[in-house]
Design a protein that fits this description.
This protein is α/β, with parallel strands linked by helices and about 200 residues long. It has one domain: HUPs (Rossmann fold, 3-Layer(aba) Sandwich). Strands 5-4-1-2-3-6 form a six-stranded mixed β-sheet, sandwiched between helices. The radius of gyration is 16 Å and the shape is globular. The two termini are about 20 Å apart.
Length: about 200
């Protein structure tokens, strides 16, 4: 089987990708690059992490999407809108690559976008199955695996965080509110742009 894994330069998603690869799944790691709003370190970390877990890395620039959301949408929903966009780009690439599902490093309640309510809204963005190997893990369990597989030291290197994270992100978003905000931007064009510029590195 083949999967597209949403792949940050943090601790969780490389572990999720590793667990899928351990099951014999061919993993395409999809990393969102927000330069020039962030630094080069995130992409460099993603390259090292993908090599560690044996995944082929694709990087797509998401700066235009961030700008569109910042200029047109409710800032409290920025993270949810961004994650739904990432799901859609992953699904588009999965369809082109013949992949069977999407993998994420999400775990219940770990950050604002990972409440049960928000995960339901995220799933609504795509038709393809979304697999979350870490859904019931606590952070220490994930860190232990990351140390064992050699990704923790790479993930722990300093890099710029996302400058678009709102001060008070929505933790219980409603699908009708999210769809209203998405109607303010050209989703199809942004998804196609993201999928088309996803480069193998």
């Amino acid at each position: 089987m083949k999967a597209v894994a949403l792949f940050s330069s943090g601790i969780d998603s490389p572990v999720a990708a590793y667990l899928m690869a351990k099951k014999g799944v061919e993993v395409i790691a999809l990393h969102m690059d927000s330069r020039p709003h962030t630094d080069d370190a995130g992409v460099e970390k993603a390259r090292g992490l993908a090599e560690k877990v044996g995944a082929k890395l694709r990087v797509f620039n998401n700066s235009r999407f961030h700008q569109e959301v910042r200029d047109n949408c409710n800032p409290k929903l920025h993270c949810i809108l961004c994650k739904r966009h990432m799901y859609r780009v992953a699904e588009r690439i999965a369809e082109r690559e013949g992949a069977d599902f999407i993998v994420t490093g999400e775990s219940i309640g770990q950050v604002a976008s990972q409440t049960v309510e928000n995960l339901e809204v995220l799933d609504n963005a795509v038709k393809m199955p979304v697999i979350r190997p870490l859904i019931g893990f606590d952070k220490e369990e994930t860190i232990r695996i990351a140390r064992d597989i050699g990704t923790y030291s790479i993930s722990s290197r300093k890099s710029a965080g996302c400058p678009f994270v709102p001060k008070a992100p929505a933790t219980k978003s409603r699908i009708e509110d999210v769809l209203k905000e998405e109607s303010k931007i050209d989703l199809d064009a942004l998804v196609e742009q993201g999928a088309s510029n996803a480069e193998v590195t």
